[in-house]
Every structure is written in structure tokens, then in C-alpha cells.
């Protein structure tokens, strides 16, 4: 997959089959739409292209800065590449770009820069300054500038909308089975391993503390999870706590993973943690000994889950 960080960087000798959107989560609903791109390239006559934006438009436009996303931009790139998209353009979204009129966007971006043969888009898509243009306007522009417009069905759009809503709700409830079903993969967090207070090591449960640098990433419900990672090309299972460590008077949200049957120095490494199952909410215990006893029960529950599904 070719990656471009601006519309102006995109170059191709072929016409393109293009779709655009935020594609947050790159979930099963998105994939139905994205697969249409490869189906329309006519065995290489045209190139497939996805146009997306970063920051998310709702991060830029007034009053929308608190949006939480299912993927960081790097995670989205990884997921889109697996689908087989030939070209991904991530354009910096800013207020100046949002001021383009509908015809300016069609003429200068879609026609002159992307040389589109066809655009695949939802029936409810709105674009241009203040989002004033709709699918009918786009069809008219297609006739004027000689490109096709394929409308994504109402049902498919509803599938995307329902999936996104259900995924966020499920993650906020700790319902990993439902969120992972709609995603089509296990929800994951990506971060750098940093040094914590190392309390876990003293009670027999050493943990890797994960620092997620992107503050817009959606962190699921606080509590204990069954997780997996690929470390040094090996599949490793473990359990993870998201929360404030109330038993030891923690003040900041932390994400800590205890891996089973694994011992290696992971400090400063980037790691991906996939969430498989939610075990319980975070609790405050009367002593560190009581916490240790609960962690032993959590480990047994996690291993039972792993043995049942893996």
C-alpha cells in the first residue's frame, strides 16, 4: 500500500476508484464498503484509493474537541493495509480545508488531483463548505466532470452507523465479545512500556506499564481484562488492569499488563495489546494481601478463559 500524507502528494498514472471517510475502527461495516474499491478496479485498469483525514474533522471544528476514536492514525494505517487498498491518502484536516466549496473540492481534489473514474459514497454524504452539498449534487458534478458515482445502500450505511455506535457502547461497558464481533478483530491498545511503581513485582505479579501517547484513543471501561500480545514473534497471554489502583492510593489512570509465563525486559518497547474478555470492575481492597489474593483468582479466571477459547 502506498501512503500519502497530503492530497497534493498523491501521484498516479491511472484513474482512481475512490472512497472517502474517517473509517474509525475499520470495522466489518467499513470493510464491506472498502472491498467495493478493489472490486471496481477492473483487474488493474484503475487504482483503488482511500481518502481520509487527520485530525478527525470533529477535533478541528468548534466544540468537538473531546471526540474519542477507536484507532490511532498508525493503527488505522495498519488495518487498511491488511484489506489490500492500493493507495491511502491521509490529508491534514484544518479550518481552511473545511472552507472549500463543494465544486472546489470536486474540481481541484477529486478531478484534478485524483483523476477519479468513480467515487463510491454513502447516500447521506454531505460535503463542501458547511456541508451544504449532497449526493444529488455529487451526481450532477459527475456528469459535468465525467466520473461515475456509486451510492452505498441505505442498509450498508446503517450497518456502519450501528456498528460504530455499538462498538463504542460495548467498549464503555466492557463487552468485549460484542465489540470484537462488530470490529472483526480484537480491540487493541498500542503504547510504549514505561517504568511504574513496580509494586506488582513485590507481590508476584510484575506488570508492564503501557503509556498511550495519543490522548484521543478510546480507552475501554476500567477493570481487569484477559489480553494477548505478540512479543518477539511469540503469542503471549496475560491479564490487564485499566484504572487508578485505588488499593495503593493511585492518582492517575494507568494501564498495566501482567503476562503469564513470560519474563523479559520490555522497557521502552512499543507493544500492541489485544483485549479478549472483561473479567471484573476495578476494586479497592482493604490491604495489599487481599489484592494479591484477588489477582490470583483473576489469573485463574483468565487461564480458564484462554484454555476454553484458545
Beta-strand content bin: 25-35%
Summarize model confidence as the mean pLDDT: 91
Largest sheet: 6 strands, parallel
- Topology pattern, helix = H, strand = E: EEHEHHEHHEHEHHEHEEEEEH
Name the overall outline: elongated
Give the beta-strand count: 12
Structural class computed from helices and strand pairing: alpha/beta
Radius of gyration: 23 Å
Q: In angstroms, what separates the terminal alpha carbons? A: 32 Å
Proportion of helical residues:
25-40%
How many helical stretches? 10
Which runs of at least 5 residues are low in confidence (pLDDT < 50)? none
Strand order of the largest sheet: 1-4-3-2-5-6
What features would you describe in this structure?
By secondary structure, the chain is an alpha/beta fold. Helix content is 34%, strand content 26%. The protein has 10 helices and 12 strands. A 6-stranded parallel sheet has the order 1-4-3-2-5-6, sandwiched between helices. Strand 9 and strand 10 form a beta hairpin. Helix 1 packs antiparallel against helix 7 and helix 7 (154-173) runs antiparallel to helix 8 (176-183). The radius of gyration is 23 Å and the shape is elongated.
Brief descriptors of the model:
alpha/beta, 310 residues, 10 helices, six-stranded parallel β-sheet, six-stranded antiparallel β-barrel
Short structural description:
By secondary structure, the chain is α/β, with parallel strands linked by helices. It contains ten helices and twelve strands. It is elongated and about 75 Å long.
Amino acid at each position: 500500500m502506498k501512503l500519502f500524507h497530503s492530497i497534493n502528494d498523491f501521484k498516479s498514472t491511472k484513474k482512481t476508484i475512490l472512497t472517502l471517510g474517517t473509517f474509525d475502527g475499520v470495522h466489518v461495516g467499513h470493510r464491506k464498503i472498502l472491498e467495493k474499491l478493489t472490486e471496481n478496479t477492473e483487474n488493474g485498469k484503475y487504482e483503488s484509493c482511500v481518502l481520509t483525514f487527520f485530525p478527525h474533522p470533529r477535533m478541528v471544528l468548534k466544540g468537538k474537541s473531546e471526540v474519542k476514536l477507536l484507532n490511532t492514525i498508525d493503527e488505522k494505517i495498519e488495518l487498511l493495509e491488511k484489506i489490500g487498498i492500493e493507495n491511502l491518502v491521509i490529508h491534514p484536516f484544518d479550518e481552511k480545508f473545511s472552507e472549500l466549496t463543494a465544486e472546489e473540492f470536486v474540481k481541484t481534489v477529486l478531478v484534478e488531483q485524483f483523476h477519479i473514474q468513480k467515487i463510491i459514497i454513502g447516500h447521506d454524504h454531505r460535503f463542501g463548505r458547511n456541508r451544504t452539498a449532497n449526493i444529488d449534487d455529487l451526481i450532477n458534478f459527475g456528469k459535468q466532470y465525467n466520473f461515475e458515482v456509486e451510492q452505498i445502500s441505505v442498509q450498508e450505511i446503517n450497518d456502519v452507523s450501528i456498528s460504530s455506535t455499538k462498538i463504542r457502547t460495548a467498549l464503555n461497558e466492557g463487552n468485549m465479545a460484542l465489540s470484537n464481533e462488530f470490529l472483526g478483530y480484537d480491540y487493541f491498545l498500542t503504547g510504549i512500556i514505561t517504568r511504574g511503581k513496580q509494586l506488582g513485582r513485590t507481590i508476584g505479579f510484575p506488570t508492564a506499564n503501557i503509556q498511550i501517547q495519543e490522548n484521543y484513543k478510546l480507552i475501554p471501561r476500567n477493570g481487569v481484562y484477559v489480553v494477548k500480545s505478540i512479543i518477539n514473534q511469540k503469542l503471549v497471554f496475560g491479564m490487564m488492569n485499566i484504572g487508578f489502583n485505588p488499593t495503593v492510593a493511585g492518582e492517575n489512570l494507568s494501564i498495566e499488563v501482567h503476562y503469564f509465563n513470560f519474563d523479559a525486559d520490555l522497557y521502552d518497547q512499543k507493544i500492541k495489546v489485544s483485549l479478549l474478555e472483561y473479567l471484573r470492575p476495578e476494586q479497592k481492597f482493604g490491604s495489599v494481601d487481599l489484592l494479591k489474593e484477588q489477582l490470583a483468582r483473576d489469573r485463574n479466571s483468565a487461564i480458564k478463559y484462554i484454555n476454553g477459547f484458545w
